[in-house]
Structures are given as C-alpha cells and as structure tokens.
C-alpha cells in the first residue's frame, strides 16, 4: 500500500471520499504551521501569511484557468455549494438541479426553496446517468428560473455531465449556472475560459490537498443577489468572514500545483488501472455490472453492482480493501443510494453496489490485490448466504 495510507496492509481505493495528502501539500503545510500570523494583520507576520494565501490563490487559479480574484476560499465544497446556492438563487423563483446531486446540493436546494419561497426542479437521469433536460425546458417556459446547479462529475458513478446544453438553456432563461466540480477538479483538465459557468465549487482533499478547505469560483462581473453565510470581519471580499485557514489554504495551493503538473500523465495512468480493475472483475464475476459504463466517466471511478450480495457484507469480507458501498446514510440509518435509484436500479441492486475510486498514488499491484480480494469476498458471501438459506 502507498506510504500515504494509514495502514500498510490496506489497499486504499476510496479517493472519492478523500485522497491521501500529497507530499507537496504536507511539506508546505508543515512549514506554514511553524509560522505565526493572521493573514488580515498588517505587520510582517501577517503580511507573510497573506503572501502564502496569495500564492495559493494563484496556484488554484492556474489549475482552473481563471483569475485569482475570482476565488473565495471556504472550509470545503459543502460550504462552497451552500454559498453558491444562497448567493445565486433569487427567492420566490425556480431553482433547478439534477436528481443525482451530492447531498450538499440536494438538501441545500430543498431547504432554500421550502415554505413557499420558490420551486425546485430536479432533472431526472437515464440508466447511463445522462441528464434529461425536458423538465428544465418546461420550467423555463412556465416561469422564472434563476439558478441551475448541475454537478460536473458524479461522486458515486463518476459519470460526467455534458454542461453545454444545460448552460445554453440557462442563458436563454437569464439564469445563473453553478457546477459542483468537487470530484472533477485535479483529475481532468478544466478551463473556465471554455466552461461558461458563473459559479463552481471544489474541495482540496479530493485531489491530494488537506481536508477542511475548498473554494468557490465566482466569475468576475456576475450579477447576483448574494447573501453571505458567514458575516463578520469581511474577509474574502465580504463573501466569507472569518480568519483564514492559512496552513490549509497553502496545502490546497500546493496540491493544486502538483495536480496541474501531473494531470495528463496521472489521468491516463489511473484510467488504465480502472480498466484493469473492471476487466478483472467482470471477467471473473460475470454476474456483476458497471453502472454508467456507457457514459464518459472520471478516470478513476468504477461503481460495481454484485446482484443479490449486500455491499456491506462484501466490504466486511475484504477488510484489506478500503472501498465504499453504494448506499448513502441519512440520519445514521442506511438507505439505498439516491443516485443509483435515480438511474433505475432496484433497491436491492442499489444495496449490492460497491464503489472503487482510484487516484494518483494507486498502483497496479494494489489493483491486482483488489481484484483477488473482491472475487474471494463474493465467493465467501455467496457461500454464507446459501448456508443461511438452507432449511
């Protein structure tokens, strides 16, 4: 297992949950933690801290091909998503999202459009995870749509969203466009000169930065009735009050720089490893299938259904593999993945799905270990279930 993992005997394939901290990020964070200074202070220590923040802003901007002044640092993508929805949505109008959004969008969208303050349209997807735009077209004809939010890459299946027709419809309606790019940034090239969105959210720990820091891109010149979530000292140009997390921001910047430099080689290598994993599983376990396999996907994500075999039992049978099941947890109680249900899977199949997500430190040896462990786990669970079912 890679040196970044917590245990040497565990194969870490849960990059969509969080990725190992890149060495470049760790190094700059340790150096920053040895320093003192509030980035808002005007003395030398404060100016040094502010310089670290400025550098990180430039590094993240370079990764996104945007201007540094268009970035607002946050505590992560959840805050960035909430800030984007609150800033871009006009109360009393229509907010459109997709049925497969992360809860940070899905639940926030439902919250801000309740109590008669507006309407919410959730765009369905087909079996391949492709968004159906018809409800958006209808909503535009029926009333004022002020904001459309669609994720760039799905966190469970890795399916990529074709943003061009969504952006086109939004522009016709005079609506703002936000995208949750949490799983996309740092894994595939992104140029905000070409992707014409008004708002974009990201989180550092998905591409080798530290947990607890992210950013919101706000395109220069965007007009919106923005309402800050945090009010106080006026940091981040009034968008997000509070003392800046200088070590975290510095680590985010270093991870962005490292990801930018290695992006093309990493994405190709990770995609080839995903192919090895999928081929190994489907050839040896012909009953399993890949969700979203016919759609463009992130290079390092595969969402595999093992019909009739509970995902939690499979994961328990292979403790040496760090992967995740296809179910989300709401209020501490397991429930089928809303993403897989939206794609047309049955509740049973949704509960029989495992997500493997690879990243920059994944090795071919680890993939081979994962294949062997999964095949063995499937056999063990099938045997145990058959024994339990016997009279």
TrEMBL record:
Iron-sulfur is among the record's keywords: yes
Needed co-factor(s): pyridoxal 5'-phosphate
Database matches in PANTHER family: CYSTEINE DESULFURASE (PTHR11601:SF34), CYSTEINE DESULFURYLASE FAMILY MEMBER (PTHR11601)
Reaction it catalyzes: (sulfur carrier)-H + L-cysteine = (sulfur carrier)-SH + L-alanine
InterPro entries named in the record: Aminotrans_V_dom, Aminotrans_V_PyrdxlP_BS, Cysteine_dSase, PyrdxlP-dep_Trfase, PyrdxlP-dep_Trfase_major, PyrdxlP-dep_Trfase_small
Sorted UniProt keywords: Iron, Iron-sulfur, Metal-binding, Pyridoxal phosphate, Transferase
Name the UniProt record assigns to this protein: cysteine desulfurase
Record lineage: Bacteria, Bacillati, Actinomycetota, Actinomycetes, Streptosporangiales
SUPFAM superfamilies: PLP-dependent transferases
Family of this protein: Belongs to the class-V pyridoxal-phosphate-dependent aminotransferase family. NifS/IscS subfamily.
Record flagged with keyword Ribonucleoprotein: no
Pfam family, one: Aminotran_5
Known EC number: 2.8.1.7
């Amino acid at each position: 297992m890679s040196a970044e993992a917590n245990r040497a005997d565990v194969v870490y394939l849960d990059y969509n949950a969080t990725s190992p901290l890149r060495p470049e990020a760790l190094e700059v964070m340790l150096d920053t933690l040895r320093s003192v200074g509030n980035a808002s202070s005007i003395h030398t220590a404060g100016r040094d801290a502010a310089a670290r923040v400025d550098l990180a802003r430039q590094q993240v901007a370079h990764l996104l091909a945007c201007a540094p002044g268009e970035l607002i640092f946050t505590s992560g993508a959840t805050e960035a998503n909430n800030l984007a929805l609150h800033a871009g949505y006009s109360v009393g109008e229509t907010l459109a999202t997709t049925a497969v959004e992360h809860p940070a969008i899905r639940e926030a969208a439902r919250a801000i459009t309740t109590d008669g303050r507006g309407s919410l349209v959730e765009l369905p997807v087909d079996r391949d995870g492709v968004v159906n735009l018809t409800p958006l077209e209808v909503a535009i004809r029926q009333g004022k749509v002020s904001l459309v939010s669609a994720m760039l890459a799905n966190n469970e299946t890795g399916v990529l969203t074709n943003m061009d027709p969504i952006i086109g419809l939004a522009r016709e309606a005079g609506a703002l466009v936000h995208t949750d790019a949490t799983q996309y940034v740092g894994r595939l090239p992104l140029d905000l000169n070409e992707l014409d969105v008004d708002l974009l959210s990201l989180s550092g720990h998905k591409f080798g930065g530290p947990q607890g820091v992210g950013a919101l891109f706000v395109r220069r010149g965007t007009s919106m009735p923005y309402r800050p979530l945090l009010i106080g000292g006026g940091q981040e140009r009034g968008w997000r009050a509070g003392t800046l997390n200088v070590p975290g921001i510095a680590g985010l910047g270093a991870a962005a720089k490292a990801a930018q430099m290695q992006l093309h080689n990493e994405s190709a290598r990770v995609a080839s490893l995903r192919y090895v994993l999928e081929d190994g599983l489907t050839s040896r376990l012909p009953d399993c299938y890949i969700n979203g396999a016919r759609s463009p996907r992130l290079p390092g994500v595969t969402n595999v259904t093992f019909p009739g075999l509970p995902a939690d039992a499979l994961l328990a049978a292979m403790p040496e593999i760090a992967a995740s099941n296809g179910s989300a947890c709401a209020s501490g109680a397991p429930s089928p993945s809303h993403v897989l249900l939206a794609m047309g899977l049955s509740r049973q199949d949704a509960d029989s799905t495992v997500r493997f997500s690879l990243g920059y430190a994944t090795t071919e040896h680890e993939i081979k270990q994962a294949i062997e462990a999964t095949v063995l786990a499937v056999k063990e669970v099938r045997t145990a279930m058959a024994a339990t079912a016997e009279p």
